[in-house]
Amino acid sequence: MSLTEYYIFMSVSFLSAISMFVLAIQAFSFRSRGAKLFGLLLLAVALWNFGIGGSMMSVNESMAFYWTFVQMVGVLLVPPLWLLFTLAYTDARSSLRWWQVALLFANAFIALVLLWVPALRPLFVQAFRFEEVMGYQVIVNWTLGPYFWFHQVLSFIMILLGDVIILRHALQWPQEQRRKLMLIVLATLLPLLTNMALVFNWFPAIHGNIDVFGIVGAGFILAFVLYREDLLALQPIAARRLMEALPDPLLVFDAQFDLKDANPVAHTLFRKTLPAEVLTILRELMVSAKDDTQPSILHNLVWRTKDGERHFDVHVQALASGQQLAGYQVLLRDVTELMQVMEQLAEIATTDPLTGLGNRRYFNEQGERLLAQAVRYRHPLSMVTFDIDFLKQVNDRYGHPAGDQMLTEVGRVLTASI
User: Fold this and answer.
1) How far apart are CA 275 and CA 270, in angstroms?
2) Exposure pattern of 215-247 as b/e (b: 16+ CB <10 Å)?
3) Which pLDDT score is estimated for 343?
4) What is the dihedral sign for C-alpha 254, 257, 262, 265?
5) Closest Cα partner for 92 from 82, 80, 100, 84?
6) Strand pairing partners for 262?
7) Contacts 24+ apart (CB under 8 A), 51-54
8) Which residues contact 221 (CB under 8 A, 6 or more apart)?
9) Which is nearest to 246 in space by CA: 340, 313, 334?
10) Cα 237 from chain centroid?
């Protein structure tokens, strides 16, 4: 290994480890599902890199081995933590029993025991090849044992299985949300490829652990997804499932009032875009909900469509990530049928069933309203009263059905004339 290679690998290892440690602390600050597992995953990657860097600063072979052991702790923890994170992120981890979780870490435990116990070590690593660089004993090659290959295959399977779980659910997300999951998968594939290149010696001219470059690339992607794409700020696929199951339209806005997501019912209702008048009302509600722990509620939002009027009760709830505002959740509860029933009940309560004319209750309600309006605007108000002559004689001579028929006809004439 040349001095240039030595300085590059050592500096990249420690810088990558520090970066992953910072990202892990940031991930732990989120409260969303899977955030803690994501933080543990990043800590394992940081440990992996610290082990690589430490092994390049070992004054003897024993110290180099101890740092390599630290490196392998991180390497062995990454696959099960990644798989658990994907299960938690997609709301599938709750179906795992404790022994199934323990089984995921069994490979890591067995491999570390084999690596630590000298008598069993050849099953995992048969020999290390050292080179002295600036007085340090640097491991430049491993002679791999049979269990290492079993561990390698099992680790690849767990990582790829996690990728498949994420990709399978990403296809159900809108394009804007799908991108961050695709980037996460890309971040896992980079260390996977560099690790394969290291194990199978695809680049024999390079003397060093090229895992660090894959991890650096993954670190840049994860930092972008974590800070720019809000990976852990809002509820992930578990919330997506709930959104899709809701019978009412549900909209998700960011802190700048830009629409970020909507469930299928909302897509069907609003087609491609929200009407400007509806969006204006929703933004006013979001502003009022910004500093309130209780949702802002608007009753009977009327939206006119080509199929007629739709009535909604609107519930707006601010979404927080830690102490910061992350966005808003807007639930539109369709009350069109309820409003129609209420209008029918009101009509029944104020209409005479025989003639279809307003009854006494209707007269009192409308009279009070019209009188108050006339007084306020100083308009004249007129009232016409009349009576039906000989109604009693008609009932007595021809029967009440005939009298009812006459009343109905009078009601029809009045309705058509006044």
Assistant:
1) 8
2) bbbbbebbbebbeebbbbbbbbbbbbeebeeee
3) 80
4) positive
5) 84
6) 251
7) 52/9, 52/13, 52/209, 52/211, 52/212, 53/10, 53/13, 53/14, 53/17
8) 183, 184, 186, 187, 190
9) 334
10) 5
Closest CA to 26 of 326, 231, 254: 231
What does residue 92 show for φ and ψ, rounded to 5 degrees?
Answer: -110, -5
| Contact indicator for 207, 275 with CB cutoff of 8 Å | no
Per-residue confidence at 208, pLDDT binned at 50, 70, 90? low
**What angle in degrees, to the nearest 10, is found between the helix axes of 61-89 and 106-116?**
180
pLDDT at 348: 81
Mean pLDDT of 272-280: 75
Distance (Å, whole) CA 406 – CA 262: 57
With residues binned 3-state (H G I as helix, E B as strand, rest as coil), the percentages for the chain, rounded to 5, are 60, 15, 25
pLDDT at 287: 82
The proportion of the chain whose per-residue pLDDT surpasses 90, expressed as a percent, equals 11
For residue 96, give the amino acid letter. L
Read off the pLDDT of residues 91-144 as tens digits, 9 standing for 90 and up.
766 667 888 889 999 999 999 999 999 999 999 988 887 778 777 777 767 788
Cβ contact 262:250 at 8 Å: yes
- Please identify which residue in the block is written with the tokens 């980079």: 190
Q: Are strands 296-305 and 259-262 parallel, antiparallel or unpaired?
A: unpaired
